[in-house]
Specification:
Number of helices: 13
Order of helices and strands: HEEEHHHEHEHEHEHEEEHHHEEHEEEH
Distance between the termini: 43 Å
Shape: globular
Strand content: 15-25%
Length: 451
């Protein structure tokens, strides 16, 4: 689709936004949101005719790209049939969405509790774990993000938690493995895995195993840096949970539905959690939807005992129609397989080649359409290009990199000292190569800040 140029309309949209919209995670007087005129596939554009290749997939959720016609049609058809209905009833499209999701989750995660998004999914997974075990503590990792609602933000292990860190009773954090910046002084993946598991079990011992309801981990941490866990780590966590009667929760809100080249990232590690949260890619974000996939033993807890939780819009028909259509599109167009292929043949090799040429790239991590470049001042010292949680002038090198990427027609995903390459899972080979070329040019700006 050719962008329609209408600067006057864009100015009106921007003015209304600045007058009335309160934006998340922002100092309202310091932001200048881009007025978006439209989007299609892997691209979006503004009212001035500037088109951007979206290497963020929105917030890593448009797994099938923008405006897929089959999903748009499914939403329209459902709206004409039954726009909304309360969650206590059996609705055909809700049942079908649950069936299709359950068919793809690992193991016996066959019951689906629907929410409006990932944070609510985490809230309810933790509630289920606490009620199932009768315990109150939950262990979560540093370098993690689980959402912005009350429990989810207090489980989060990045600075977005700090301002709301008043409700963390019962939350205990630990270090998950991350060899590039190892907290365990490890030099190999085997050492990192072994020491991380020992640290986790020590934490459990000192906190009291009988007080711990759940351990929650992002299968592959997303915003925190796409740190793929070393072989054996997640199965080790599974064994520790079984040993102490702890519920194992995997957060697949970002990593699920094709993002890593599998339906769920847990498949890469041959592990089955007790609860799995999802959202984002389940329907490419077209209508808000999330949920918890529940194992047989936890579902049985609530066979005769009411589950004390629910949402007005749980399993909303329009959202479920979008999920059904999205899953069908992903099957028919082999989107999951394509995500794996593009990661193995284009993104992975291309990003590693950039790392060889650019002194600002310390490490490349990822799989499928889920990649991160760890930008550094020095490859030798691994000092981050900007300090942890940098703002203002301290963040200038990353701001300059971002501006350079946009000048190249690429909209980048930037968090702290990293840029993530997370395009739509069905990004074409040509589009992926276009993104790599834009990153190449923008990294030259980052290189100017190395030593």
């Amino acid at each position: 689709m050719t962008p329609h140029v209408d600067p006057q309309a864009g100015a009106a949209v921007k003015a209304a936004d600045r007058a009335h919209v309160f934006h998340s995670w922002s100092a309202q007087g310091l932001i200048d949101p881009l007025a978006v005129a439209g989007a299609e596939g892997s691209y979006f554009w503004d009212y001035d005719g500037n088109r951007y290749l979206d290497f963020t997939s929105g917030l890593v959720y448009t797994n099938i790209g923008y405006q897929h016609p089959r999903v748009v049609a499914a939403i329209q058809e459902q709206a004409a049939k039954l726009t909304t209905f309360a969650p206590a009833f059996a609705i055909d499209v809700r049942s079908e969405a649950a069936r299709l999701i359950a068919e793809r989750t690992p193991g016996d995660l066959d019951k689906i509790f629907f929410t409006n998004g990932g944070a609510e999914a985490v809230e309810n997974a933790v509630r289920m774990a606490r009620l199932h075990t009768g315990r109150h503590k939950v262990l979560s990792a540093f370098r993690s993000y689980h959402g912005a609602t009350s429990t989810a933000i207090n489980l989060t292990g990045d600075p977005r938690r700090w301002a709301s860190d008043t409700g963390s009773a019962g939350v205990v954090r630990f270090w998950a493995p991350f060899l590039y910046r190892s907290p365990f002084y490890a030099t190999t993946e085997e050492q990192e895995c072994e020491r991380a598991l020992a640290h986790l079990e020590d934490t459990i011992a000192f906190e009291g195993p009988a007080t711990i309801a759940a351990i929650i981990l992002e299968t592959v941490p997303g915003t925190a840096g796409i740190m793929t866990p070393p072989p054996g780590y997640l199965t080790g966590v599974r064994e520790i949970c079984d040993k102490y009667g702890i519920v194992f929760v995997l957060d697949e809100v970002m990593a699920g539905f094709g993002r890593t080249g599998k339906w769920f990232a847990a498949e890469h590690f041959d592990v089955v959690p007790d609860l799995m949260t999802f959202a984002k890619g389940v329907n490419s974000g077209y209508v808000p939807l999330g949920g918890v996939a529940i194992s047989e033993k936890i579902a049985a807890t609530f066979d005769k005992r009411p589950y004390p939780g629910g949402l007005t819009y749980s399993g909303h028909p329009l959202a479920c129609a979008a999920a059904v259509a999205t899953i069908q599109v992903m099957e028919d167009e082999k989107v999951v397989e394509h995500s794996a292929h593009i990661g193995e043949t284009v993104l992975g090799p291309g990003l590693r080649e950039l790392a060889e040429r650019h002194p600002s790239v310390g490490e490349v991590r990822g799989m499928g359409t889920f990649w991160a470049l760890d930008l550094v001042k020095s490859k030798e010292t691994r000092e981050p290009l900007v300090p942890y949680n940098a703002a203002g002038e301290a963040n200038a090198p990353m701001a300059a990199f971002g501006a350079a990427a946009k000048k190249q027609g690429l909209w980048p995903f930037i968090n702290m000292n990293r840029t993530h390459a997370v395009p739509a899972c069905n990004v074409s080979e040509a589009e992926a190569k276009e993104g790599l070329a834009a990153l190449d040019a923008a990294l030259s700006v980052a290189d100017e800040h190395t030593v």
